[in-house]
Amino acid sequence: MGENSSGLQADPAMRRVQDADLARARAGDDAAFARLVGPLRQELHGHCYRMLGSSHDADDALQDALLRAWRGLARFEGRGSLRSWLYTVATRTCLDLADSRGKRALPVDLGPSSERAVLDAAPLTEVAWLGPYPDQGLADGRAVPEARYEQRESVELAFVAALQHLPGNQRAALLLFDVLGFSAAEIASMMGTSATSVNSALARARRLVTEKIPSMSQQQALRKIGDTKVQRLVAAFAAALEHGDIGALVPLLTEDVTWSMPPLATWYQGLAAVTDFAVQVPMTRCPSWRSLRTSANGQPAVAFYIGGDATGSHAAWSITVFAFRDARICQIVSFLGPDHFPAFALPASLP
Predict the structure, then answer these.
(1) 337 phi/psi in degrees, rounded to 5
(2) In this structure, are residues 211 and 166 in contact, taking their beta carbons and an 8 Å threshold?
(3) CA-CA distances (angstroms) from residue 34 to 7, 25, 37, 79?
(4) Do the Cβ atoms of 204 and 170 come closer than 8 Å?
(5) Contact 172, 91 (CB under 8 A)
(6) What is the Cα–Cα distance from 260 to 268, expressed in whole angstroms?
(7) Has this prediction a pTM greater than 0.90?
(8) Cα separation, 111 vs 213, whole angstroms
């Protein structure tokens, strides 16, 4: 990787400042350490999310990784960039955490879809569910020119869900090489293995991920549709749900649309099943809806709130993420629960 891609070696004057902060940090100055890692926190957090499939787990992993880095700073010899070293620490931390917490799943990973609305579905608490990712701080484009995936592509739900099917070493190799642009030799050093092993893991990971993700990423689909039309589609979906208007909802959806709601294991596929669910549950059994627009996983999203009636307070209900194909909604994933809202800086209720 080039010097500029380290994020900490922009010019000689900046390098002198960073070297001085590094010396202070090694001497125990935590403020100097915070200045060094501050510019890298967001991208490191994104890496932890890709590895673990949960924003909450990414919080824990990043905190643990930075603590390990602070305590082990004397071992950083300066031969490579501090960024590379921090990614080494973060990747190993994520692998440790993944071993203890297991792989994350979506309802589509667990069993067949339901053809009719299930009215008594209960949360499946023993499953480690994939969670949504607040992408407000995520940069556009590729981290480096040689990266295979755009940064927003690399947090899309389909991509992160596919990663969960990989062993930890393959997941790490794919992310470090295809998303972050590290070389096989650098990754081998990070992982304590050989470049040959890295290349082998990378080839296997690419095959599986390619099988599981759509040929067109959501970033490509969104650009093809155009932002104005996408925003109209999202607004129309939210309005149809709030007004209980199934006639307005159906034209927004593809024939093979899916709707899932982790932590519920039940999910629906196809226009008939999704329509039946929409009519039977959110449009009939949920008295009043309100919504706020947001984005998650590089995709348009809506934060939905539910209330007892139109005039009362509405409580946080779901972060609903949309995928598009041919100017229609082809996937709806509603992440249920108010615990998702703080990460998106969204209120717990609407008046």
Answers:
(1) 120, 135
(2) no
(3) 15, 9, 5, 21
(4) yes
(5) yes
(6) 6
(7) yes
(8) 18
Q: Is the peptide bond prior to 167 cis by the omega test (within 30 degrees of 0)?
A: no
For the record, the structure tokens of 270 come out as: 């196809």
Q: What is the distance between the alpha carbons of residues 77 and 86, in angstroms, rounded to a whole number? A: 12
Question: Is 257 a residue whose pLDDT tops 90?
Answer: yes
Rounded Cα gap, residues 92 and 186, in angstroms: 14
Long-range contacts of 2-7 (CB under 8 A, 24+ apart): 2/144, 3/81, 5/83, 5/143, 5/144, 5/181, 6/81, 6/82, 6/83, 6/84, 7/39, 7/40, 7/43, 7/81, 7/83
pLDDT per position as a tens digit, 25-51: 988 899 999 999 999 999 999 999 999
- Which residue in 8, 32, 154, 21 sits closest to 86, CA to CA? 8
Residue 1's pLDDT band (cuts 50, 70, 90): very low
User: Can you tell me the distance from the alpha carbon of 217 to that of 223, in angstroms, rounded to the nearest whole number?
Assistant: 10
Rounded Cα distance between 234 and 187, Å, is: 40
